[in-house]
Specification:
The protein is α+β, with helices and mostly antiparallel strands and about 140 residues long. It has one domain: STM4215-like, CATH 3.30.2000.10. It contains 3 helices and 5 strands; from the N terminus they run ααβββαββ. It has a 5-stranded mixed β-sheet with strand order 1-2-3-5-4, with helices on one face. The longest helix has 19 residues. It is elongated and about 50 Å long.
Length: about 140
């Protein structure tokens, strides 16, 4: 089977960029990166981060793909405002990715929201949310 991880990453990026409500929640400008944001990038921003491929264990040629999106926020109004902003943006990420994404060369036969985690950075001011989804992709 061909590995769909890059095609899925592109589909995740396209879906996030296309969502006007997500852009609005991020302050009207969607700063979205893969792997990491450039140093000095103003918050809020999102990073399409780690992913994982797991064979489905069946005889059919399909795999499960796990994707992670990070949300980073820092509000001038303090940690509570940062946390609220991170949770709101993470909620939009969850909604956008909770569906059958168009992945060229593959069919999304199943998908699920896995979890969200909301963390406070060690600086005590920055909030970091992590949103994970699972996609079962079959060759088209």
């Amino acid at each position: 089977m061909n590995d769909a991880s890059l095609a899925l990453q592109d589909a995740v990026e396209a879906a996030l960029r296309a969502d006007a409500d997500l852009t609005a929640a991020a302050g009207g400008v969607l700063r979205l990166f893969t792997v990491s944001a450039p140093s000095g990038t103003p918050k809020p921003y999102l990073v399409i981060g780690e992913d994982q491929v797991v064979p489905d264990g069946l005889s059919c040629p399909s795999d499960e793909y796990f994707t992670r999106v990070h949300v980073w926020t820092l509000s001038d109004d303090g940690i509570e405002a940062s946390r609220r902003e991170a949770k709101a943006i993470a909620g939009h990420v969850r909604r956008v990715l909770d569906g059958a994404l168009a992945v060229p060369g593959f069919v999304t036969s199943d998908w699920a929201f896995e979890f969200a985690e909301h963390l406070t950075d060690k600086d005590g001011l920055t909030c970091h949310s992590v949103v994970d989804h699972r996609f079962h992709l079959d060759p088209a």
